[in-house]
Amino acid sequence: MILDSKNKSSRLLIVTQTVDEGDPVLGFFVRWIEEFAQNVEQVEVICLKLGRSDLPKNVRVHSLGKEDPPRFARRVVYAFRFLRLAWQLRREYDAVFVHMNPEYIVLAGILWRALGKRVALWYTHRSVDLKLRIAAILTNVIVTASAESFRLPSTKMRVVGHGIDMTQFVPLPKKQTGTTLHVLTIGRLSSTKRILEMLAAIDVLVARGVSVAFTIAGVPATVADAAYERQVHAMIFAKPTASHVQFLGAVSHTDIPALLERHDVFLNLSLTGSLDKAVLEALAAGLPAVTTNVAFRDLLANVPGLFIETDSPETIADALVFAAHADITPITGRIRAQFALPHTIATICQLLMGE
């Protein structure tokens, strides 16, 4: 779909943190840019950090320079570079899509309004702070993955799905579970992911005589996360079940499908109430997921036992054993239909056209 309008052409500015297909958290966004490039004539991208990518010819990327950071006043330097680019490129774009960083709208929202640029903010997080409140005033539309993923009441909010590249997460024939139960979790290593509670469930399985291997993929992102990581390691190494746990650290987004294929169950104990992209990717690839996240209650309703409300270690352990043998074909089909990347990007483009 190529946007066209009597008043607007189809040139888009995208603002994001990282353009790097190898990034363990934001590697997926390279495919988003490619999909946007199929929907519009020209794409300008401003990113904080530029890594590896092979983007279409109608995409130009401008980095703020985090890959080679200034020595002093980094935030001030980045803000100045961003505003300079937003102004210098003003004749090269007609609409703006800001991914997950409302501070960019705080910085340039008034400028974009003065220039007549329509702005969309993508936001999927339970946090509501002053930056988000200001951005919500200055933006034209707020797009999010689910109703639970955006917690600030706003008439501007639109649910557009999670934008998963289904060509990357292809469901494979269900493998026969071997003698060892292979459990996987992927995500930022923080207290919100409740790794300690996961380990307690693994302890229960080991105590029951179940052969289990638990893989943790992810790294801390903040000082608090790093402290939590140390707490997790201290707990593991104090137990005889340490040999059942493997830390992979950061995993490139391009390597996640192969990682999912090697496991029997995905485990997510988040209580955020927002749809976790890692869980959706696992389900899209046909891997059963056990979760306490209420946002998945309806999505997992076809297979009772995957969404658990009583999350004692014993309940989680029971759910993991059950999930390894569960048929989630109906769930996978629904995920693939509801959260596919082309639908999400096309919807965002339509919203950006405005009236």
Please explain how this structure is put together.
The chain is α/β, with parallel strands linked by helices. It folds into 2 domains: 11-163 and 340-353, Rossmann fold; 181-337, Glycogen Phosphorylase B (Rossmann fold), CATH 3.40.50. The protein is built from 11 helices and 12 strands. The chain has helices at 29-39, 74-88, 103-115, 130-138, 195-207, 223-237, 256-261, 277-284, 313-323, 329-338, 341-353; strands at 11-19, 42-50, 59-63, 95-99, 118-122, 141-144, 157-159, 181-186, 212-217, 245-249, 265-268, 289-291. A 7-stranded parallel sheet has the order 3-2-1-4-5-6-7, with helices on both faces. It has a 5-stranded parallel sheet with strand order 10-9-8-11-12, sandwiched between helices. Strand 11 (265-268), helix 8 and strand 12 (289-291) form a beta-alpha-beta unit. Helix 1 (29-39) packs across helix 11 and helix 3 runs parallel beside helix 4 (130-138). The two termini are 18 Å apart.
Quick description:
The protein has helices at residues 29-39, 74-88, 103-115, 130-138, 195-207, 223-237, 256-261, 277-284, 313-323, 329-338, 341-353, and strands spanning 11-19, 42-50, 59-63, 95-99, 118-122, 141-144, 157-159, 181-186, 212-217, 245-249, 265-268, 289-291. The chain has 11 helices and 12 strands.
Question: Topology of this structure?
Answer:
Blueprint: E1 11-19, H1 29-39, E2 42-50, E3 59-63, H2 74-88, E4 95-99, H3 103-115, E5 118-122, H4 130-138, E6 141-144, E7 157-159, E8 181-186, H5 195-207, E9 212-217, H6 223-237, E10 245-249, H7 256-261, E11 265-268, H8 277-284, E12 289-291, H9 313-323, H10 329-338, H11 341-353
Parallel strand pairs: 1-2, 1-4, 2-3, 4-5, 5-6, 6-7, 8-9, 8-11, 9-10, 11-12
Helix pairs in contact: 1-11, 2-3, 3-4, 5-9
